[in-house]
């Protein structure tokens, strides 16, 4: 594949993944989530146009799709959409707050290509429920996972995504909770807080970043070079070239930051997948214009983006993934911090 140097080259970069936001609705009002404070549009498209869109994404080259929202399980066509996506994609990731998992069609949990990423913000039930503003939310998730784990009744994979509101120390109980319930992957974002919201442009509190790093180092970790150290970092952002985010209104964006939460008027849409075709969108001048700006990191939010390829990001997060056993990674300004002996 040739180097990307201008408009003519963008079409040579294949689409590899996409995020589909089925609905604006959510049954939680998480304290850190900016989306909870935005006006949510009432438009909610049925299953058929979403199935058509996912088929078009697949034809364009995408082999991984993230289904999110709002809370995607609230969409009346969720089961049909998910089953179809799983039938053609190599990996389908469902981002959910987990409250409705116990009411899902059980057949979905027998699909091995599905990964259910559940928002669990604390191993303490009261703290998690306070963050989500849903009494009993943690208990429902815990009961569901315990039942699944006890009966080995699933071929699907489960992951946690935790946003710790100034409670980075809570990550150790979360590791234990994940291991106990058979969860294979855990991502912790320690810098988010109720005051900052969930927009990366707010995550510039270096003093907090340094406190997080000090805590990690005090926990017996060492610093390793990140995969894109500054002297060999790619010249531009490739996330915007190979991905696509489609909001509930069908508007298409190069990344989640460009989508601007639930706002349909962020100014960075390059087409509507529900009123046009993915192929036409990707061949349009507007698509090429937006991608050129994004690839050069010239969009107004790029300077604070936390994408791994960014050379000078202040965003720091604790990534806990699995390969047999859970092992934590903390990325910090082109460094990866991991356990001693890791």
From TrEMBL:
Signal peptide: none annotated. It holds the Pfam family SPASM. Its cofactor is [4Fe-4S] cluster. It comes from the Bacteria. Keywords: Iron, Iron-sulfur, Metal-binding, S-adenosyl-L-methionine. Residues 12-225 form the Radical SAM core domain. One of its GO terms (molecular function) is catalytic activity. InterPro entries: 4Fe4S-binding_SPASM_dom, Aldolase_TIM, Radical_SAM_PqqE_MftC-like, rSAM, rSAM_sf. PANTHER family: PQQA PEPTIDE CYCLASE (PTHR11228:SF7), RADICAL SAM DOMAIN PROTEIN (PTHR11228). This is Radical SAM protein.
